[in-house]
Amino acid sequence: MKYVGLQEQITSNNRKSIFLLIGFPGVLLGAVYAVLMFASYNEAGGGINTNMANDMFIEAMPFVFIGTSIWFLIAYWGHSAMIDYASGSKTLERKENMRVYNLTENLCMGVGMKMPKLKIIETEALNAFASGLNEKNYSVTLTRGIINTLDDKELEGVIAHELMHIRNKDVKLLVISIIFVGIFSLIIQIAFRSFLYGSMTRSRRKDGKGGGGLIIVILVVSLVAYLISLLFKFALSRKREFMADAGAAEMTRNPLALANALRKISGNSKVDSVKSDDVKEMFIDNGPDENSANFLGGIGGLFATHPPIKDRISVLEQF
């Protein structure tokens, strides 16, 4: 893969990220409209009543906006606590970890940014991630394994990579994408449970009537929207990884150190204690296992949260 220069890469990735972010509300509104089109269907009246669907869509817009805003507020205020709980991370004590603090402080001073909080996951796996929505809760989390295994230059490259995620606002973009995907996931769960409950209720009544048809449509539309939103989220994540690698290389002036770190991380990054896919997506490496990658082939690349490590190393070696 050819290196095209940091500024050109930043511009290109930011432009593509804007289109991807616009896609999330577009998919949400499209899904709502598709369901309302079906709801306006009247066989006796000659099929879909477009005017009726448009009126219902306009009436539904405030409720969609309010519901989405509430979801965003809950995610915004509870984001850090939820990530700490899901990852099992704790504060990295300065006294016992001066090496990590010194590396991070030097990097932050070099680029004029406020130092984030440092946290740790007690595991021998090699991984790291950045999180937070503002300067008060920005944090960089490292595993015990990555601290103990990498030398100073390699660890500096990893920390710089995570700092670039914060500087480039990638952590905010990721939260937004997770929130939108979560909306569709919730709708699917509600629709599926409603369908099961409705089926059991109709079975008891044995009259075969009810709103089962509309629930099926909601379920199908939500599944399609969920799949599309996942593709948007994964594409957004992959673009930001290349940019963070490039930024870290420029920040440290040592791209080969990060490349060497990625070599050591590859195949040793699985954190078994972390079950949340949303947290795994934030890791510096979240590659599929070898069997899954071979089975999915090229299609698997669409559902990958990270580009292949070999491609990232190849780009770094071209600096």
Descriptive account of the structure:
- This protein is 69% helix and 6% strand.
- By secondary structure, it is an alpha+beta fold.
- The protein has one domain.
- A hairpin with a 4-residue loop joins strand 1 and strand 2.
- Helix 3 packs across helix 5 (152-167), helix 5 crosses helix 7 and helix 7 (212-252) packs across helix 8.
- The longest helix is centred in the last third of the chain and has 41 residues, at 212-252.
- The model is unreliable at 206-210 and 290-297 (pLDDT under 50).
Gross morphology: elongated
Number of strands: 6
- Class by helix and strand content? alpha+beta
Low-confidence segments, given as residue ranges, are: 206-210, 290-297
Domains (count): 1
By DSSP (H or I, 4+ residues per run), the number of helices equals 11
In spatial order, strands of the major sheet run: 3-4-6-5
> In angstroms, what is the radius of gyration?
23 Å
* Portion of residues within helices: 55-70%
Averaging pLDDT over every residue, what do you get?
A: 81
Share of β-strand residues = 5-15%
- The topology string of helices and strands comes to HEEHEHEEEHHHHHHHH
How far apart are the termini?
Answer: 12 Å
Largest sheet: 4 strands, mixed
